[in-house]
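2024-03-11 09:14:02 INFO queue: dequeued item TolC family protein, len=436
2024-03-11 09:14:02 INFO validating residues
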Amino acid sequence: MNTKILFRSLILILFCVVKTNAQEVLTVEDAVKIALENNYEIKIASNNLRIDKTNVSPGNAGMLPKATATIVDANGIQNISQTRSDGTVTKLDNAKNNSFNYGVGLDWTIFDGFRMFAKMDQLKELQKLGEAQLKLTIITKISDVNATYFDLVQQQQQLSALDSTIVISNQRLALAQNRFTIGKASKLEVLNAQVDLNTDKVALLRQKELFANTKIMLNQILSRDATIDFKVVEVIVVDDKLVLSELNTLAEKQNPQLEAQIINKNVAELQLKQIKAARYPTVKLNTAYNFSESQSSLGFTTQSSSRGLNYGFSASLNLFDGFAQNRNEKISQIQIDNSKIAYEQQNLALHSQLAASYQTYLTNLELIALEEKNEVIAKQNLNITLDKFKIGTITTLEFRTAQLNYVNAKVRNSNAQFQAKLSEIALKELAGTITF
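2024-03-11 09:14:37 INFO prediction written
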């Protein structure tokens, strides 16, 4: 009999060990790393940046010549009638005419009013814009990972608080049953204790459901199997050293949205340069080497062939286009003005968000200190109340009030830490300094 009990105990221990090992302890750093490797939005933004990099080339800017190979084979069968100057008439039915031409040509724009150089600079700015958009996607995703991760930590802390209150409720029920057995309490006290215990169990089940669903949400953000189970760390550490002036300075240099507005202004200015280039002449070089053969069934020449090099240049200058040039330049200048306004608007919004988020951050730091004290006081009050309840000097209602006050204090403390962490994440996201 003892051997069977020992064997079952070993099996139970082994099962618990396997289950524990199956749950990896996922740190927030590991979560961010997985998101950067797997997240679909980041992959799409990375591919868009690769497109922008590929577009940055002299050929795309129009700096390189264009070489074209051509081949034309033309054949015809016609009924021909020719009347010469001396009145002689020549006729031929089903006359065949063949023409075969092929060659290689090269065209090169050597001057276009510096449009090609402005285009090249614009392509480089668009690459920078792609980098800013990728950075924004990464920062946003890291922020989402951090917020969801520490939401799990908070919920885990609340699960712990509910577990502890169920332990206390079980103790209360046992005491009530003992007191009822020896005739020192009524059945009503036992029933009330049972109802409160069941209420605590319902709250625990709801919290477990929320915890499991948030795990699924984090797995989705990490772009991995939603059923992967894991553990999170037990505490939330808040950086309480953030300074608003430093955050403002960093945001002006590193915030990707503000950076994108600066790039958009540069792109608009380069677009104006390309439009102004139309006021200058366009000079092109061209050359070609062609082969030509032709045959005709009727005429003075029945067969001919030629081959040789052609070369030259062309120049064109727009003299009048119905004032379209002036109109295009005015529109482009307005777009530059709009880009400046958009930058100022984004800059103002950024500093306003920083100021508001920083005030929330400071308030949450104060709430952490206050809620920590409240939890300590509530714990002391519960211990004293529990001792008095055991000796029967207080009512069950007073004990339940003390119990709920302790649970609520723990939950508020956990929530205060979480809200402060969210404020920290928001500030670092705005400043562009959130850890990659």
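2024-03-11 09:14:37 INFO annotate: The chain has two domains: 23-56+112-280+323-431, 66-111+282-316.
2024-03-11 09:14:38 INFO item closed
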